[in-house]
Design a protein that fits this description.
Radius of gyration: 16 Å
Oligomer: single chain
Number of strands: 4
Distance between the termini: 46 Å
CATH architecture: 2-Layer Sandwich
Order of helices and strands: HEHEEHE
Number of helices: 3
Helix content: 40-55%
Strand order of the largest sheet: 2-3-1-4
Shape: globular
CATH topology: Alpha-Beta Plaits
Structural class: alpha+beta
CATH class: Alpha Beta
Strand content: 25-35%
Length: 91
Amino acid sequence: MRSYVQALITAESLCHIIKEYMKYRFKTNINRSGCIQAVTPYLNANNEIIHWEVNIDNPEKELTVETDHLSHEMIRQIVKNAGYSAEKLSP
């Protein structure tokens, strides 16, 4: 029984690793570390967001979000709820 459970966990982990996520890029007004701290609880609260990061050194103040279910509009709304703007960039 134990090896069956281990194999099942391994198979699920592998599926998670090879699964492709949608990756969205946004131009934002998140322009310093305090802004990142403010938006963090909003982005982290959504379980559909796999990974996110903001590059404040980029002139676009680019937010990158990986998800397997959310649309770019849903992500834009999350950022808006945090008090910031997000405009979808081309892939």
